[in-house]
């Protein structure tokens, strides 16, 4: 059994909450007391059924206003998989919440109302999913019951979407006609759409391959903490605790520590005091090295053979999450895995139109929920990968220096290495 | 399929270890809140995996309401002893005296709410900047929205509107003076995941998690462990039943469930069959209003 993390973004109108409610209800993850709590609140839909959206709207303000403000996490499992749902609001003013939910997802469910077809919101959710590097998109054409389960309606929407999707950097797109309200093709296959031969949504969620979503090629081990017991038994023990965010590590591997560039060999790979043959992403382990090199939190242990370089200058896509606008010259804290450093925004290159994926040039400042491409320079050198090459090592957050709140989510787009800079001088 | 395949429990474990090490790496003075319940016992096992052969970089802290199950207290002391880790216990009783607090009276009297005062007092006494807790998002609808690193103001209050976006596996532990963070490493675990992990890791639990005969007070259809701490209406019945506890909290607000599950496999089978949620079955404190948990969290509770 493994884990699939997926995001559903949307507003109440397009049936998102009903779909989640349906998945939880039909896989028997809703308990009697939770249903009773909803029933006692007296909210029912036009069919007289309980309003399943109340299951996901957890905060008082959300219930009062009937909207989703923040990301809620929901859990269910089948014998094949554990599922973690990031249930995010879909309106443009909540783009940052969707970005948050999307950052950890392997799959994105995008709902299209069969009566309305591909809308601005469909495009925005697809673009954000694609920018955040979500490998699998599922386009659910919902409310098929309201168009008489008509195949031609479905085919037209699929064609329209495919036309739009040419712009996207999406590897895997699946289309499923459903009725979340009636349950068609959600858990069980619909008998009312015999023209559709594909899997139900749940079948697809159970089958979609996720192990290949982990990068096992590029070994990256950011050190989080150094274990030094200082006991008689472990007098000289020095263990580097961290998570293999990508790649694999074995005893005997030749490694380089960055940014210092010192080299050594792995003496052992351990978990909970037991030695392992190999560690691979996303395992949390301890590495011991043969040599007594100076390593502390924020350093990254990589394979010597990759010949990697650190950098202080790079370009990134940033989703801005603060009420105060971002301006060129802004100084911020940047947190990338276990490293924290200061950063300066040297230039705002353009804003991304999340409704159409066009670039808006001459952006002198960036507002809340905007996504932009910027040039950054950091105080200390970082080991970065391009986000599209290695999601686990290409994302970072920006933190306000005085309020300490998280104000931006960044994805590395291109890197200028130190050696290239020297060459240019 | 690739041979490098990580089972879901291993993935959850790896995530929780990573979170604990971020706490150790980002904070000066962290603590692990330990209640003697299965979730905090799971946290302790995860801390062993994260930091052995070293010592934990934080003490275990227990806020004792004085109304805890004796089995849980005994388990707590033995565990700290066996692990050789530091245990700090602070008593709600002392806070009541010191701060001249009023205890609730009547049928629903519980010290659960007063725990918050002692917790905040303890955080101040030791200057803890981060407290690790065993809360899970599947427990309750307000918890479903809480971050893994949850920033609290100097009154310990949770403000859902001020929550920081939390992206990838990057946790922002930067705080201003006086603020502190609650960190929840098992946010993404469900009740069943915890039990499957307890089984896999062969973790011993206080025996009240398994079936035993007990005198119980029947209240609103729930079975409360009968003790001196509980107020009894004359018409309320006391019965002897085979029960176990799904959650172990304060005796005054934790109900038992009828069960014959005598070992971890039987408990897992029972949870899979259960039609009632963990907190719904056992927590009196959540029933007091529709947003009881959200309200308590805003007041500094976990």
TrEMBL record, chain A:
Superkingdom, taxonomy of origin: Bacteria
Listed GO biological process terms: sulfur compound metabolic process
Residue intervals of the Tr-type G domain: 1-213
Entry GO MF terms: ATP binding; GTP binding; GTPase activity; sulfate adenylyltransferase (ATP) activity
Database matches in InterPro entries: CysN_GTP-bd, CysN_II, CysN_NoDQ_III, G_TR_CS, GTP-eEF1A_C, P-loop_NTPase, Small_GTP-bd, SO4_adenylTrfase_lsu
Keyword Phosphoprotein tagged: no
Keyword field: ATP-binding, GTP-binding, Nucleotide-binding, Nucleotidyltransferase, Transferase
Keyword Acyltransferase tagged: no
EC number: 2.7.7.4
EC class name: transferase
Protein name in the entry: sulfate adenylyltransferase
Organism: Pontibacter ummariensis
Taxonomy of the source species: Bacteria, Pseudomonadati, Bacteroidota, Cytophagia, Cytophagales
UniProtKB/TrEMBL annotation, chain B:
UniProt EC number: 2.7.7.4
Keyword Transmembrane set for record: no
InterPro entries noted in UniProt: PAPS_reduct_dom, Rossmann-like_a/b/a_fold, SO4_adenylTrfase_ssu, Sulfate_adenylyltrnsfr_sub2
Keyword Nucleotidyltransferase: yes
Biological processes per GO annotation: sulfate assimilation
Keywords per UniProt: ATP-binding, Nucleotide-binding, Nucleotidyltransferase, Transferase
Molecular-function annotations in GO: ATP binding; sulfate adenylyltransferase (ATP) activity
Pfam families per the UniProt record, alphabetical: PAPS_reduct (PF01507)
Domain Phosphoadenosine phosphosulphate reductase, chain residue ranges per copy: 30-255
Tree of life domain: Bacteria
PANTHER family: SULFATE ADENYLYLTRANSFERASE SUBUNIT 2
Family: Belongs to the PAPS reductase family. CysD subfamily.
Name the UniProt record assigns to this protein: Sulfate adenylyltransferase subunit 2
